[in-house]
Design goal:
Helix content: 55-70%
Order of helices and strands: EEEEEEEEEEEHHHHHHHHHHHHHHHHH
Structural class: alpha+beta
Distance between the termini: 54 Å
Strand content: 5-15%
Radius of gyration: 28 Å
Largest sheet: 6 strands, antiparallel
């Protein structure tokens, strides 16, 4: 059984318990989890499915318009864990996932101290096979034949796991016991109350032994967590030193050496976080989200761009702060935001039709501050500053009588198709490179990629990544400046309330 708790959206506050192995999510009438057609516009008709495969639940995005996210990260297919937050479309409703079974509360500091004290007084280590044998005896003595059979099966599972590890403790006893207890519940709960009371007593006795196992796990886990955090902090210091060296380095060969060192360090640091997540998800999230508010804003936006990087270059943060300060100190910020609000629903409609992340729409802020009448000295025109040839390529009329670049809906449709084509060329994970191409022109970025391709391994994904090109100063200065300028506009809008923009009315015609 899977339990869905609706945290936001038209079903907010509701909890649904579902038992089907395939669950459809969307706005269509045949969906098992059906959202409101009007109140949940980010949800597609058939948005996603929850699948039970070999005992594990997965979420699968079924070609939705606005994507499916797990804990803020966009996914196509993802194995679910209890407590995961599932968002149906970027900016759409959020559900929290829980699985049916025995839920153990995380011990308080006081409880943990008592457990640690008990462990320190134990003369021997706890052994999986001894504990499961004791639990089996409790269940056999207190319940019916079916319960005893389940206990014996659990003992065999533990023995098998121990065999796989060469006779050592497998670390899977608690999970096997939790599943066994759940099966006991399902097989006996419908029977007589008297028998059920006996089973509950047996399970309670078994749980006491499990607590003993958990006390040892807690000790080992805390030591492991402390070691991983220490390792990660040490790696972060080395990463910072390498980044500082890269900022001031101009020699291409030395930059390449530093880049390889950075890749090694960041890979090790991410591995430490992944290992930490296995032991303590909360601590892993805390460590991963360390830094100042700008770090958190950048990570949030990059996650939507699918352009995450472990270490954002310090010079990028500096330029982002520069453009952020420039926006915040501009006397017309509220006026620009009002104009943005006026055109935003139309922009989201066109971008959503092609599945483009809405953050890319802030290109219009960076280009013209959402001014549909803008014209550049180079001949680009309209809100999206399309050149005449580019506009015609996307079916806009540009001649002496009519210039559809000044028509916001038509120009937006053309710009969205242009950006979608850039993504198709440079890769769906290259949102930032596509933005750079919008400013530089795809031919300019293409030349850089062809230059990289002439080097050993230059065709690989990590070598054509925006961050790799940015750190190695392969992109032109204007382009290196353009991307933080777009993201600065996204940061301002993301924090509209903080900057006093919340509730700002749309610009009137």
């Amino acid at each position: 059984m899977i339990r869905l708790k609706h945290l936001s959206g038209s079903l907010q506050g509701r909890t649904a318990e579902l038992v089907k192995p395939v669950l459809r999510i969307g706005r269509a009438p045949d969906c098992d989890v059906q959202f409101d057609q009007v109140r949940d516009p980010k949800v597609s008709n058939h948005h996603a499915e929850l699948l039970l495969e070999e005992g594990n639940w997965f979420v699968v995005d079924t070609a939705s318009t606005n994507g499916t996210l797990i804990n803020g990260r966009r996914v196509t297919k993802h194995r679910l864990a209890s407590g995961d937050k599932l968002q149906i479309g970027s900016g759409g409703p959020v559900l929290q996932i829980h699985f049916d079974g025995i839920l153990l509360e995380e011990p308080s500091f006081k409880t943990e101290a008592i457990l640690l004290q008990d462990v320190s007084q134990q003369p021997r280590a706890i052994d999986d096979s001894e504990e499961i044998s004791a639990i089996s005896d409790h269940l056999k003595a207190s319940a019916d034949t079916q319960t005893a059979r389940l206990a014996e099966l659990a003992a065999k599972k533990v023995a098998l796991e121990r065999a796989k590890t060469g006779g050592q403790s497998s670390g899977k006893t608690m999970f096997i016991m939790a599943e066994t207890m759940r099966q006991v519940q399902h097989s006996t709960k419908a029977k007589t109350k008297k028998r059920w009371v006996k089973v509950v007593a047996a399970v309670t006795a078994a749980a006491v032994i499990v607590v003993g196992v958990m006390s040892v796990v807690i000790v080992q886990q805390r030591r492991q967590i402390a070691k991983l955090v220490q390792t990660k902090n040490k790696l972060d210091k080395e990463i910072q030193q390498v980044q500082q060296a890269m900022d001031s380095e101009t020699d291409a060969e030395k930059l390449d050496q530093l880049e390889r060192r950075l890749a090694q360090l960041t890979g090790n640091a991410q591995q430490a976080i992944d290992e930490l997540g296995k032991a303590d998800k909360t601590k892993a999230a805390e460590v991963a989200n360390a830094g100042d508010q700008m770090d958190r804003d950048i990570r949030k936006i990059l996650a939507n761009f699918d352009a995450k990087t472990y270490a954002v270059p310090p010079v990028f943060k500096e330029r982002l702060q520069f453009h952020l300060d420039e926006l915040l100190h501009a006397g017309n910020l509220k006026y620009i935001y009002r104009r943005k609000q006026k055109y935003w629903p139309m922009i989201l409609k066109e971008f959503g039709a092609l599945g483009l992340p809405e953050e890319m729409a802030f290109i219009a802020w960076a280009e013209t501050q959402f001014d549909p009448t803008a014209r550049s000295k180079a001949g680009a025109a309209g809100m999206w500053q399309l050149g005449a040839d580019t506009a015609r390529r996307y079916n806009l009329r540009v001649d002496a009588q009519v210039d559809e670049r000044f028509d916001p809906p038509k120009a937006t449709r053309a710009a969205s198709r242009y950006l979608a084509n850039l993504l198709a060329e440079f890769g769906e994970d290259s949102f930032m490179l596509a933005m750079a191409s919008y400013n530089r022109g795809e031919s300019g970025v293409r030349r850089v990629l062809h230059q990289i391709a002439s080097e050993p391994g230059g065709f690989k994904k990590e070598r054509r990544d925006f961050w790799h090109l940015y750190r190695l100063k392969k992109l032109p200065e204007e382009t290196r400046e353009y991307v933080p300028k777009v993201i600065a506009a996204a940061v301002v809008s993301m924090n509209a309330q903080k900057y006093g923009l919340e509730g700002t009315k749309e610009e009137s015609d």
